Amino acid sequence: MKYKAIIFDLDGVICHTDKYHYQAWKAVADKLGIYFDEVINNRLRGVSRMESFEIILERYDKPMSQEEKEVYTTEKNEIYKELLNNMSPADLSDEVKETLDGLRAAGAKLAIGSSSKNAKFILERLGLGDYFDAISDGNNITNSKPDPEVFVKASQFVGEDAKDCLVVEDAKAGLLAAIGGGMDCAAIGDAVASGLATYNLTTFSDLLKVTEA
């Protein structure tokens, strides 16, 4: 293995919960009379909950206190978590699970690096509750991507130097975070177009090739 640890973003990499985020934010935006569509939703990927709400509020022309913002972001999360109850191990693709198992069999430590505060709940829904060696998420970081904090902490949790870790991301902000943390990164999905990654993946299983020594 070229790397001692592989750190994965969660949403858009291990699984896909974009539709649930969209539905939850849309419910809040509709309540406030704010226009919200999937193009705007795309800007929220890899961004913290409060920062996401600030982007939505760009189209809101009334003052809003921090306390009110907390109320609406909490409401969004409650709606989102309710929707997440629809998830099950069936939402974890065979390709992803087989690739993760292959990386582990080759000796790599596996970690999650996600801005989400719901990462552990989502992993439990997928049947991966105790699968990863470490989870760095929105509950243990102060700064969201593109700040490298979430990945730096993940590397610390698994006890490996940044140079020995590979980050897998589907968002530009995540790639910037990996690079800022001194780590190589593999892009999948929309992140490929950024041209920032060490490796561009066509499919998740490509990880088995790019990590070979």
Q: Concise description?
A:
The chain is α/β, with parallel strands linked by helices and 213 residues long. Helices cover 42% and strands 11% of the residues. It has helices spanning 18-32, 38-42, 49-56, 66-84, 94-105, 119-126, 149-158, 172-180, 207-210, and strands spanning 5-8, 109-113, 134-136, 165-169, 184-187, 199-200.
- Which class do the helix and strand fractions yield? alpha/beta
Helices and strands, in order, run as: EHHHHHEHEHEHEEH
**Mean pLDDT metric:** 96
Rg over alpha carbons? 17 Å
Number of strands: 6
* Spatial gap, N to C terminus: 5 Å
Helix content: 40-55%
Major β-sheet, in short?
A: 6 strands, parallel
Beta-strand residue fraction: 5-15%
Task: Compute the number of helices.
Answer: 9
Q: Give the overall form.
A: globular
Uncertain segments of ≥5 residues (pLDDT<50)? none
What is the spatial order of strands in the main beta sheet? 3-2-1-4-5-6
Care to describe what's here?
The protein is globular. With 213 residues, the chain is an alpha/beta fold. It has 9 helices and 6 strands; from the N terminus they run E-H-H-H-H-H-E-H-E-H-E-H-E-E-H. It has a 6-stranded parallel β-sheet. The relative contact order is 0.18. 42% of the residues lie in helices and 11% in strands. Helix 1 (18-32) crosses helix 4 (66-84).
